[in-house]
Every structure is written in structure tokens, then in C-alpha cells.
């Protein structure tokens, strides 16, 4: 794990145009990551000496590293902005669904409803629970008495559990491995879609490369900023 001292040492490396060094970004699992990638590509076209360190994790992981100064930015999905941070809305909505084995009878369905989850052994993303407790969050109105086998924070591992017959994984659409050779994604049509935000520490002094990245990200996300 990168430490604050490690970061400080690397930031002292000079560059010809003055914009170089590393930008550290924490990322939740969401296709909204593509917008971050667009901003990175655009920035490096003008400042090729800027490098990026990407850290994957859930809300607590990302916020803890922002608060400690390890991360410059964090991409969060399904959460509001902490009081200690500034934020930028990302123009992307994720939908919930169920990852099921391809040979399962549910694999042929175009969609499911929340009521149909009852009685199924479920693996829930931490994004669907309060503090990982297994209690359904506000994205699943009316979903009660679920048979929660366990929770996960990386969809790829959940897919492997589905393949091994451990249950069905509730996940966001478009994540790596959800539609694979042995599993498929079936949308849950009455679950509330999820919005993503990028956050950074309030009143923090951004490095030149972090400030340049934020400028590119604002351009990518222009028009997405009204409150949902």
C-alpha cells in the first residue's frame, strides 16, 4: 500500500512543463469508471508525464484513503458525498440485476422483479446493504425476508461463487465477468438505479497534476451536475 511519505517523495520529481507526477484515484465497481478513463486519456495527451495509480475498493476503503491523504479522488457509486468532501456528479446511471448461471431457468428471463428474489440464495454487493449487515438498502424498496448467503465487494469474486453454485449475485450491470461463458446478467426492473460521484477532500490543496485531472474530468462530466 502506498504511504503518504512515498507519495511526497515521488511528487518532488521535476518535469519540463511543470505538470507531472502521480494522481491517485480510488474506484468503485461501476461502468462510470469509463468517464474517469476519458479524463485520463485527455490529460495525458497534453501532459504525458502524468501517471495514475488506481485503487479498487468499496466506499469505506476509498473514503478512508482520501481522509488520510493517500488518494486525490474517489469514484463512489450509490452513496452521497461525505461532509468532508467536495463532489462532482458523473453522467452515468447503473442498473441492478442478478448474475445467474447460464444453465439456470432464470437465465432465459428478460428481467426480474424484487419480489422474485425471495426464496433465492443471494450474494449481495456491499452497495445494497447497510454497513454490510445484509439488510436491504433503499435501492430495493419492498424487498424483505431475503435469503442472504453473504456479501461481497468485488463482482468478479461473486461471479466465481455463482459458478460454484453458491447462489445468485445481485450486482450492477456491465461489470467484468457478469456476462461470461458460464453466467449472465438479468436486470431487476423495479430496483432503483444508482448514480456515481467523484469526491475529493474539502479544502485540500491539490497538486498541479491532480488539479489538471479535475479540470479534464469536469469537462467530461459537463451537464451532469444538477441534483438528482
Strand content: 25-35%
Domain count, please report it: 2
What is the global morphology?
elongated
CATH class of the largest domain: Alpha Beta
Write down the overall mean pLDDT: 85
Number of strands: 10
Elements, N to C (H/E): HEHEHEEEEEHEEEH
CATH homologous superfamily label of the largest domain: Periplasmic binding protein-like II
What is the terminal separation in angstroms? 35 Å
Please state the CA-atom Rg, rounded to the nearest Å.
Answer: 19 Å
Catalogue the unreliable spans.
130-135
CATH fold-level assignment of the largest domain: D-Maltodextrin-Binding Protein, domain 2
Side by side, the strands of the main sheet go 2-1-3-10-4
Describe the structure.
- With 228 residues, the protein is of the alpha/beta class.
- It folds into two domains: 4-93 and 194-220, Periplasmic binding protein-like II (D-Maltodextrin-Binding Protein, domain 2, 3-Layer(aba) Sandwich); 96-187, Periplasmic binding protein-like II (D-Maltodextrin-Binding Protein, domain 2), CATH 3.40.190.
- It contains five helices and ten strands, in the order H-E-H-E-H-E-E-E-E-E-H-E-E-E-H.
- It has helices spanning 4-11, 33-46, 59-67, 155-163, 208-220; strands at 21-27, 50-56, 73-77, 85-94, 96-101, 121-125, 147-152, 168-172, 183-187, 194-201.
- The strands form two sheets. A five-stranded mixed β-sheet has the order 2-1-3-10-4, sandwiched between helices. Strands 7-6-8-5-9 form a five-stranded mixed β-sheet, covered by helices on one side.
- The longest helix has 14 residues, at 33-46.
- The radius of gyration is 19 Å and the shape is elongated.
- Residues 130-135 have low confidence and may be disordered.
Amino acid at each position: 500500500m502506498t504511504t503518504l511519505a512515498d507519495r511526497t517523495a515521488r511528487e518532488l520529481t521535476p518535469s519540463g512543463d511543470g505538470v507531472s507526477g502521480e494522481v491517485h484515484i480510488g474506484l468503485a465497481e461501476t461502468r462510470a469508471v469509463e468517464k474517469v478513463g476519458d479524463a485520463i486519456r485527455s490529460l495525458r495527451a497534453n501532459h504525458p508525464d502524468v501517471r495514475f495509480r488506481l485503487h479498487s475498493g468499496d466506499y469505506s476503503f476509498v473514503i478512508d484513503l482520501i481522509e488520510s491523504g493517500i488518494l486525490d479522488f474517489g469514484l463512489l457509486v450509490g452513496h452521497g458525498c461525505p461532509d468532508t468532501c467536495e463532489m462532482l456528479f458523473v453522467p452515468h446511471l447503473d442498473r441492478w440485476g442478478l448474475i445467474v448461471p447460464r444453465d439456470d431457468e432464470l437465465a432465459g428471463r428478460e428481467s426480474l422483479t424484487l419480489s422474485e428474489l425471495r426464496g433465492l440464495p443471494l450474494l449481495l454487493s456491499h452497495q445494497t446493504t447497510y454497513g454490510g449487515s445484509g439488510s436491504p438498502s433503499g435501492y430495493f424498496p419492498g424487498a424483505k425476508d431475503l435469503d442472504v448467503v453473504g456479501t461481497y465487494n468485488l463482482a468478479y469474486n461473486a461471479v466465481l461463487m455463482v459458478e460454484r453454485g453458491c447462489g445468485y449475485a445481485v450486482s450492477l450491470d456491465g461489470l467484468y465477468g457478469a456476462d461470461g461463458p458460464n453466467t449472465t446478467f438479468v436486470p431487476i426492473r423495479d430496483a432503483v438505479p444508482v448514480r456515481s460521484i467523484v469526491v475529493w477532500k474539502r479544502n485540500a490543496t491539490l497538486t498541479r497534476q491532480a488539479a489538471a485531472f479535475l479540470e479534464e474530468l469536469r469537462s467530461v462530466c459537463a451537464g451532469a451536475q444538477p441534483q438528482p
